[in-house]
Structures are given as C-alpha cells and as structure tokens.
Design a protein that fits this description.
mainly alpha, 8 helices, 0% strand
C-alpha cells in the first residue's frame, strides 16, 4: 500500500470515526423530539425563551448558529421550519410576535389580549397593540394585517380594561370620635 493510499485511508477512517462518535450528530433526533413536544404544548418554538429547558435553549441556539452559517443540512432546516423555528430574534420580530399571537388565539379563541399580558415572558399584548395603534408594519403591511384578520376579525378593537382594584376602606379607631376639619382653628 502506497503512502498516499495510507493517508487517504486514514482520512476516510477519521471521517467515519467523527461521524460515528460525534455526540452532536447523535443528539439531533432526541432534541428534535423535545422541540416538537414543546411546540405542541406551547404553540411556538422560540429559542430565546427563558422558560424552556436549558438544554433545549442551547440546542436551538446551536441550530440557529449552524443555520445562519449555512452549515445545517437542508432537511434539518425544513424540519425546524415545520415546527415554526425562529431563526433570528431581531430579523424576525414580526414572525416571533405572530407565533405568540397565533398560540394565544388558538388557546383563547380571540386576540383581545391585554397590553400587559406576557405568556412565557413575551409581551404579546404589547406586540398586538402596536398594529392596533397603526404603527408601520413594514413593506408588506397589508399581508401582515390580513394574517391578523385571519386569526381574529375583531383584533383591532382594544380589549376591555379590567375593573380597578378596590382599596380597603380606612377604618377609624373605635375609641376616637370623628374629627371634622374646621377652618380657622
């Protein structure tokens, strides 16, 4: 066997070993299953969510990185896209908010979300309020408004405010007579 053949065989063996013993290659299926269960429970797949298990956040962050670098297999990208993967928090702010709004509408049956509502720590109430206030939604504004109309035709209406909290009445001490303020004294 020549020198080049040995070198080539060593490279092939090294490649096979790396694929066979690479823990990242074997973690795909179990972590994808965890991500799929999370998506079924919550209705979105947000890699920035603090309420998710730590290993899922790490795995999703790694997939975002690999996808951004073009190193993630196209089949895996499409599998994550099917779960509603949000690849970039800032570049896809609309998609992120829409994913939360869609999950809210699926659970509650409407988009009358109070402005202070933060399911899973995401301010979906404030997000829905922005289009209500007719802020610019970007170039494809009509498509975004149509998408919200598809979730709930009445989404443009402000949700009713909760009743104000009643403060307990102040009681006067039973042993003291009620004193009236008299001007001039």
């Amino acid at each position: 066997m020549g020198r080049d053949a040995r070198r080539c065989a060593a490279r092939i063996l090294q490649t096979v070993k790396l694929r066979a013993f690479n823990p990242r290659a074997t973690e795909w299926q179990p972590m994808h299953a965890v991500a799929a269960v999370f998506h079924l429970e919550v209705g979105h797949l947000d890699p920035t969510e603090e309420a998710q298990p730590g290993e899922l956040i790490s795995w999703l962050d790694r997939q975002c990185y690999l996808g951004g670098q073009g190193l993630l297999d196209a089949a895996r990208v499409s599998e994550l896209d099917a779960l509603g993967m949000i690849w970039s928090k800032h570049a896809n702010a609309w998609e992120r908010g829409y994913a939360y709004a869609r999950a809210w509408a699926a659970q509650q049956g409407h988009l009358a979300i109070p402005a202070t509502e933060k399911p899973d720590g995401y301010a979906v109430g404030a997000w829905v309020r922005r289009p209500r206030k007719a802020e610019a939604l970007g170039a494809d504004q009509a498509a975004k408004l149509d998408a919200l109309d598809a979730l709930d035709e009445l989404w443009r209406l402000e949700p009713p405010l909760p009743p104000p909290a009643r403060l307990p009445r102040r009681r006067r001490h039973p042993g003291r007579p009620r004193q009236l303020h008299r001007p001039g004294r």
